[in-house]
Model the fold of this input.
Amino acid sequence: MERSHTELAHHPLPFAPALSLNCDATISTRATCMPDLPAIGDAVLEVIFADDSRRTARIDESPFFMGRGQIGNHLQLADLSVSRQSAAIEREGERYTLQDRGQQGGLFVNGKKVESHVLRDGDVITFGPADSCEVIFRSAPAGTSAANVMERIGSVSGGGSSPGLNKLNLLLEATMLLHSQLPLESVLGSMLDHAIAVTHADRGLLLQADADGSLRGRLARRSGAVPLQPESFAPSQTALRQALEQQSATITEDLARADVDLQAAQSIVAQRLRAVVVLPLYARVRGSAAEPSTPAKRGDFLGVVYLDSRRPAAFSKLDRQILDALAVEAASILDNARLVERELQRQLLEQELRIAREIQQALLPRDFREFPHLAVSAINLPSLTASGDYYDVFPVGAECTGFLIADVSGKGLGAALLTAILQGALLGVTAGADASGIFRNLNRFLCQHTDVNRYATLFFGILDRGGQLEFINAGHPSPLLLREGAVSQPFTEGSVPVGLIPEADYVPARFELQPGDTLVLFSDGVTEAMDPDEQMFGVSRLCEVFSAQEPGAPLPDLQKAILESLKRFSRGAAQADDITLLLVRYRGSPANNISI
Done:
């Protein structure tokens, strides 16, 4: 049953904020058929990090807290420029207000420092004066709901029961379908079906732009909702070229009266076309904050809606506005689909990193056995991504114990797999085995089978019951030696990391430990830990931690002191690398060993 314009205006459609919009937008919506996007009616934050990775978050609480800290924040931002307690967004009705919560260096909206700011769609939030991640606020600007657009379109048609009202009903149906839970292809097909019905066209084609800007057919329909193969559709290249050159819609109601180039186009003549509509689709520029009276800037080119007919079409002003509205819907859906694809890629990458982290953690010893002549304590704190830190302690025959710490360059699955190779090779060290020969073979293998960016630093030692330590340092930071309250670095002698130079030689060095001596092996994630001012922890601070401890302090206490010092120093800053510690204390021969 037909409804009057007044009824339509008082029955607004469900509305959701657009994550990205067409440049000539009169409607701002998104398709809820796509996964992982906010529900209809909520505002959205789009986060763009320095590496151009992106993620979205729905503002589903008020106040909605943002910051680097994991406790008390709804949106955690792993960015050194962001304070642990940075900002909050409070909602009152449809109004969202940003509040500075203690952001170091200040909070900025569109480049201007603010303490409190009423957010509008497209506002760009940054943190501090330095480069930081961007948080883009996405919501529905006032007056851009589907109901308001239909009310404006209705004023053109003149009201009453008319063909114009039927077309408004078609728009109502189309918009409701675009907000349905149907699959993306069904939603886009419905958009084309309604565009064909509104314009009385014979066919419709949705062309999507690839990364290089070339167009490919996404889907095609014939009048009556009949699917077509996009490959069988031959759109007018002349009409497409004109629309893309002008970067605006081309609507030709009667080709018999069009310009000569369009009339003479081969495809138009061959297919006896009389009417053509070409609607270029553009995303709205990310972070643009134009005034309501200023046209939105064009963003990335997304594709084209193409319609044609063998009959002259009577495109009225009403039809053009409806087509513009449908084009906005199509642009929003395509752009959201692109965001979803990026989000899925990000999730896939995170899944791979989780797998790498699990592999890495599985390789680490869970419980150390009792060794008669030494005590051991170790910890590995993974960063936000997986890396290749590795440590181990294992018997070498009946009289010796081997221990090692390794740091593989890079992160992810590659680093974890290389760590597995190292573990397999070094566990082959048994009594009487030639450690230097194993290192040379391992180095040649890595040089032959990995690229130049995949190598590992290692410190490997074999300690006998009498305190004789034989070690190979392959480019790793020298362990610290704690002896009677003094701290030194006597293990700098060594060679290059394994996997860099095929001809590198690895000659063991020797050092004699005294009962009570403690070796502190660490990865560079410890000394290169950063504070919010991007200052590194450094070896000197690590030495100061041990100098402040009582001689002979239990290993768990020493380990705890290091971690607490790192925590105080970093002040909540996110770390880019794993923090790995291995503490080994020589207790002496079994007859005279000392306490841990």
About this structure: The two ends are 86 Å apart (CA to CA). The chain has three domains: 5-14+143-341, 44-139, 364-586. Residues 317-363 form the longest helix (47 residues). The CA atoms of residues 469 and 588 lie 12 Å apart.
